[in-house]
Design brief:
Helix content is 11%, strand content 46%. It is mainly beta. A hairpin with a 2-residue loop joins strand 5 (111-114) and strand 6.
């Protein structure tokens, strides 16, 4: 029994010790949280007040529209300063603090100093020359760091590490509204009187503009863009860089934000060489809007530039510019660094390849583990032919894009060929072919299939444009895209034809049965001897379509077995359809129309004598003059 009691006492002692340790740990954690919060508050207070100091030293023609009090328990602790360009500053009224923070001053040379050391950055604006920004601070691993604008963070020297204490301010003694002025008294005794002008405002609404990392609005050459502006005052004006043009137009009514003007900006058609003068040098990028009231001016600016003059797609890509293929945006941020093109052309990994040799031969034979992305693009306009031989299926997880590529399907499937593309990913997948040729597709297979057992793949984009697609072996069943839905499916300006003498039956552009295509564009295609029906009657598009555009297509059948259609089912399978100028003919006299089960208006217009040249052996199908505006448009 005494042993049991001993054990009980032992466990009670352990529990007691453990309980004390846990309480101490909680205290330590809470104390740490309090210190971290305190330092975060001090950093914010310091940066907020520095923004106010910077404005006082260099207003850059921004007036104060309003000053609002912020109270805590009835005491005014902060001032919210609203400037004429919409910027809002926060001034915390000065109290001494004990947190070890950098000392920030402005020297007689009008430069910023930190802990008594010069920064080389101008703080005080002068006529014709603005200040160069103000310091921003942060705490990293217990030490202060500083930067100016978007520059790199650098250690603060001469001040020691951050220590705990109480919040404080080193700049302001008093800040108050006196009549129509905002009067600020600094700790060195200097008093600044700043006018408050409630009905003077100039604010460019930059919320809808995508600025680059350096704060520029990059505008394509020879284009016009527009942005809203809030202007209150008299005599609004706009100035702009050499070669550019900008105008202001007053709106009939202001919007919910008070924007009452529209600023139109016209980018130059060519690169502008700056004139070697001080005036030109000071205005190479700023579009400035200004408005006055009496002797006071309110000003706001936006920096603009055109994209860099780069000679190759690879240079543009590496510079961060967007390469657009079939409407899909290809950027380094999304797809990573460029891959080196193998000298022998044998691809050993996925990635982005820019081809600089016309007629370059590439070969794809990677394993079924697949690739995230495979993007093959010409490097310049001179690269018009890139050859890609696919001997093993491209197991695709992300994006497959080809431009100016002749894709030769050599994926063996018993005595014939298989699908060259097999989609592994169920989301975020894009397939884009632009100005390509696809050769050796065969019946019973097609171009792109999925690997999902439950067939729930929905492609983000399936885009084939300006391309020639040859089905080399006829038979029953052909699927350009099978067992996949799509957010955006666009098949435009393509020649899709059966080159064999054997009929091609049950052909599908989209075999999306029981799946949804949100947006379908089927326009300006020439479709030759790809019959949508076989043992049963179906359409080229099988599935539920939300929005569809079907226009300017040719659909020609030399010897149809059954009726053929653009869509399986009735008109109810397409929620919104825009159709026009679709022409075709079925030599066998079988039905040829938009929907399988329902006549529609307009439907396919039947024209028996449609082509001036019809040659399946060469893939040449030239319509008669009166129909040249329709079908696949080619230079010949």
């Amino acid at each position: 029994m005494k042993y049991i009691k001993s054990y009980i006492l032992f466990f009670l002692m352990v529990f007691a010790v453990t309980g004390c340790t846990t309480d101490d740990l909680k205290d330590d954690v809470n104390d740490l949280k309090d210190r971290v919060t305190l330092i975060e508050e001090q950093v914010k207070l310091l940066n907020d007040n520095l923004a106010v100091v910077a404005y006082i030293l260099d207003t850059q023609n921004k007036t104060i529209s309003e000053v609002k009090n912020v109270t805590d328990n009835g005491e005014v602790t902060q001032k919210k300063i609203v400037l004429s360009d919409g910027t809002e500053l926060t001034l915390t009224i000065g109290k001494p603090g004990t947190i070890n923070e950098p000392e920030v001053t402005v020297g007689e040379d009008k430069m910023w100093y930190i802990n008594g050391k010069p920064t080389g950055v101008i703080a005080v604006g002068e006529p014709g020359k603005n200040g160069e920004g103000y310091p921003e601070f942060r705490v990293q691993d217990g030490d202060w760091q500083v930067r100016f604008g978007d520059g790199d963070w650098k250690p603060v020297t001469g001040g020691g590490s951050v220590a705990g204490g109480s919040l404080g301010d080193q700049f302001f003694v008093k800040a108050e509204v006196v009549g129509d002025n905002f009067v600020v008294t600094m700790t060195d005794g200097t008093v600044h009187t700043l006018p408050i002008v409630a009905d003077l405002a100039c604010a460019i609404d930059k919320t809808s503009i995508g600025l680059d990392a350096d704060g520029f609005w990059v505008i394509e050459k020879d284009t016009r863009v527009e942005v809203l502006v809030k202007i209150t005052g008299e005599n609004p004006q706009v100035t702009y860089p050499q070669g550019w043009r900008a105008t202001l137009s007053e709106l009939d009514a202001a919007d919910g934000k008070g924007n009452n003007y529209k600023l139109y900006i016209y980018a130059p058609a060519a690169t502008v060489k700056a004139v070697n003068t001080r005036a030109a040098a000071n205005n190479t990028s700023d579009i400035t809007v200004q408005v006055q009231k009496g002797s006071l001016w309110a000003v706001d600016k936006i920096k603009v530039k055109t994209p860099k003059e780069l000679n190759t797609n690879e240079e543009r890509y590496n510079d961060g510019q967007t390469i657009r293929v079939g409407g899909l945006e290809i950027t380094r941020e999304l797809y990573g660094d460029v891959k080196a093109v193998p000298a022998d052309g044998n691809l050993t990994e996925g990635g982005v390849y820019f081809i600089s040799e016309n007629g370059k031969e590439l070969a794809y034979a990677l394993s079924s583990t697949g690739v995230e992305n495979l993007i093959i693009l010409p490097n310049t306009e001179e690269i018009t032919v890139i050859k890609l031989m696919v001997t093993k299926q491209v197991y695709l997880k992300g994006t497959f894009v080809c431009q100016n590529v002749t894709l030769s399907n050599q994926v063996v499937n018993e005595s014939s060929f298989h699908y060259p593309l097999r989609v592994m990913g169920e989301t975020g997948v894009n397939i884009v072919m632009d100005h390509c040729k696809i050769e050796n597709l065969v019946a019973t297979k097609g171009f792109a299939m999925n690997t999902s057992k439950d067939n729930k793949v929905t492609l983000d984009n399936f885009i084939i444009t300006n391309s020639d697609i040859e089905i080399a072996v006829g038979g029953s069943g052909f699927y350009l895209m099978t067992q996949m839905g799509g957010k955006n499916v666009s098949v435009e300006n393509n020649l899709i034809y059966n080159s064999s003498e054997t009929d091609l039956l049950e052909a599908k552009i989209c075999n999306s049965n029981s799946l949804t295509i949100e947006n379908l564009n089927l326009a300006s295609n020439t479709l030759i001897d790809i019959e949508s029906s076989g043992t049963s009657a179906y359409g080229l598009i099988r599935g539920n379509v939300t929005n569809a555009t079907v226009k300017d297509n040719f659909y020609w059948l030399s010897n149809a077995k059954k009726g053929s259609f653009f869509f399986s089912g009735s008109t109810s399978t397409v929620t919104n359809l825009a159709a026009s100028n679709n022409y075709g003919y079925s030599n066998s006299g079988k039905q040829l129309r938009m929907f399988q089960n329902t006549a529609s208006t307009p439907d396919i217009e039947l024209v028996a004598d449609l082509f001036a040249t019809f040659d399946k052996s060469t893939g040449t199908f030239i319509p008669k003059d009166e129909y040249k505006a329709y079908g696949a448009q080619r230079k010949n």
